Each structure stands twice: as structure tokens, then as C-alpha cells.
Amino acid sequence: MSHISKLDIKVKDLDVFKKTCQKLDFPYFTIGKHTVKMFGNQSAEVDASVQLPGWRYRVGIKDNEVLYDHWGSNSDTMHHLVDFTREYVLSAAEKLAQKKRRYCSRKQNLATGVHQLVVYV
After folding, report:
1. Which pLDDT value is given to residue 98?
2. Is 50 within 8 Å of 84 (Cβ atoms)?
3. C-beta separation of 42 from 2 below 8 A
4. What is the structure's pLDDT at 108?
5. Distance in angstroms (rounded) separating the CA atoms of residues 46 and 62
6. Contact between 36 and 56 (Cβ < 8 Å)
């Protein structure tokens, strides 16, 4: 039985992946083809991976898809994946806006807990 899940985001920029891991203080990340262990005897060939705090298995990036297995990990640690996803998406959008359009942008954390990317033309 497979415990491997996929997120509905694409990780296309491994430089942003690396910077996201560093910003969130997730020091145990690997870039380059390798195998990560999943539940039981399962494993996945991935292009990059990160060990999130409190997680039993690494989160992997394969063909731009995010693969993860949260089985056996503390349910209080799921927020690390949410934080990673949010930061990656905001950073990738910010990099793209600055590169393609020469816009200026900044990230803003609102008092409501909403994270907003503001792009100035």
C-alpha cells in the first residue's frame, strides 16, 4: 500500500528550492538525483529532497512534483510542509516577476496571517 502523496504545486526552480530551505532553516536538503526512503520498503528516485523537522521521511522533488510520506510523523509537524510550500511559491513568483518584467516586489505578512506578494510596476 502506497503512502506517497503529491502536492498540487510544481517546483521548477531548484535555486529557489535551496533558498527556501535555507530561509526556513531546513539544513538537511539535497539537490541532485538520489533515492529517498518512504514507508515500508518503498523508495523514490528524486531530483532534490529536504528533511523537514519532525518528519520520518524526506520530502522529494521529482519531475517538478512534490512527493511526500507523512506516515509515522507527528501530526503537529505538517505545518512545515505548508510553510515550505508557501515560501517556495512566493519566492518563485517574486523571482519570475523581477526577471521577466523588471518589476519590483516585496513579501508582506499581514496581521491576519495572510502572506501577500506585492508587485510594483
Report:
1. 76
2. yes
3. yes
4. 74
5. 5
6. no
Q: Which grid coordinates are listed for 43?
A: 523508495
SS3 of residue 36 by DSSP: strand
Residues of the chain short of pLDDT 70, as ranges, are 1-2, 100-106, 115, 117, 119-121
Helices (H), 14-77: 14-23
CA distance 62 to 53: 21
Cβ neighbors of 90 (< 8 A, separation 6 or more) are 107, 115, 117
Structure letter (DSSP) for residue 116: E
One-letter amino acid identity for 65?
Answer: E
**Which domain does 35 fall in, by range?**
5-120
pTM as predicted:
0.81
State the Cα–Cα distance between residues 51 and 112, nearest whole angstrom.
29
Q: Are 54 and 70 in contact (CB under 8 A)?
A: no
Predicted confidence at residue 1, as pLDDT, reads: 46
Please state the domain count of the chain: 1
| Residue-level pLDDT at 64 | 94
Q: Which of 26, 32, 99, 38 is nearest to 62 (CA)?
A: 32
